[in-house]
User: What shape does this take?
Amino acid sequence: MRILILGADGYLGWPTCMYFSQRGHDVVGIDNYFRRNAAIALDCEPLLPTPNLIQRAKIWEKITGKRINIHVGDATNYAFLLKIFKEYKPDTVVHYAEQPSAPYSMINQEKAAFTLQNNLISTLNIVYAVKEANRDCHIIKLGTMGEYGTPNIDIEEGWLEINHKGKKDKFLFPRQASSLYHTTKIQDTDMLWFYVRTWGIRVTDLMQGPVYGISTDEADRDSQLVPNFHYDEVFGTVLNRFVVQAVANYPLTVYGKGGQIRGYLNLKDTMQCVYLSATQPVKNGELRIFNQVTETFSVNELADKVCAVGNKLGYNVNINHIENPRKEKEEHYYNPKYTGLLELGLKPNYLTDDELTGIFRKVEQYKDQINRDAIFRGIKWSAETLSGTA
Ligand SMILES: NC(=O)c1ccc[n+]([C@@H]2O[C@H](COP(=O)([O-])OP(=O)(O)OC[C@H]3O[C@@H](n4cnc5c(N)ncnc54)[C@H](O)[C@@H]3O)[C@@H](O)[C@H]2O)c1
Assistant: This one.
């Protein structure tokens, strides 16, 4: 298939480009380097050096003989995006090109406005480009489990049947985000559902949990093909951050009581989930929603795992329960359903000690590069703003 990957320079985007390319598909990757530039501006660059996207594609081609077409540009620029759609006529578009950080969206008004504008307009532009260039193109959109929040009822896979006063109907599962970033993901879902109903486009919306890991079969082929691995408070995900903290002898930053439970998945499983969704598309006029996680953990459970493996490897890992900068429940019910992707054929890579040891081993090689100042900045959900992050 011809596949267009928006946000191709990202943590998920670059490994996805290689994953599809390796399997014989024609891949086009787009990125505007927002994340690279924001990480420089906030002094929180990734741990491992990553060549720019054009260079990475060249290295990939040299190693495999397979070409990934790269265009540096902005998905919120409709003329640019439409030109790409018309030129390549993709069968599938994977939309990763968003501002992906909850803390970033909470820094100040400017970053909140950017997050809203960037995430919603990029999604709108894709819908319009699909309508104009190829109405059968399957949109695969990355949403987040954070759209649901932490309700006191089981979380279904996207939809909920409601019986009300003797009548029944099916609706999007109720959602209540805990950051502005997550709110934009809810708005994306609402917008996509509107256009699915109105124009009959086809969409798979993946409610993904926080991803961890650094390794995929393709990325492991050369040190210059690794994904960007963030461990800072702004762009890092929790497990990756804890491993770097352990290696840096920095007490693990557990927010508050640490009873916050979320669904997680390995980077390798993100590849599988997107691939399974792309190769088994939905029909026109359908919005399919999957909960893209493979297991659930509380923050305390993750910290305990990192302690156990880190101590076995000779580190002296400590846990620090710090004042929670976020506004969230620290003890709550959490029971999401996540069977749809398993039914499509997902074979999960669970968080074993060996898997965690592999992340430690990779991080250790770059131990001297760890910027301790980036680990915790204390970006607060309250009205205050941190100096140095504005
Ligand atoms: N990583 C996770 O744990 C996780 C979990 C749930 C959902 N997601 C979602 O998955 C997607 C990818 O996340 P990621 O972790 O790879 O983030 P990332 O920041 O590493 O990748 C996103 C990429 O999109 C690019 N981008 C942003 N806006 C753009 C625009 N307007 N035009 C072109 N490129 C643009 C950025 O430069 C970046 O390279 C995001 O939508 C994110 O919200 C990620």
Q: What stands out?
A: The mean pLDDT is 97. The radius of gyration is 20 Å. The pocket of nicotinamide-adenine-dinucleotide is lined by residues 6-7, 9-13, 30-35, 74-76, 96-98, 100, 118, 122, 142, 144, 208, 210-211, 228, 237 (CB under 6 Å).
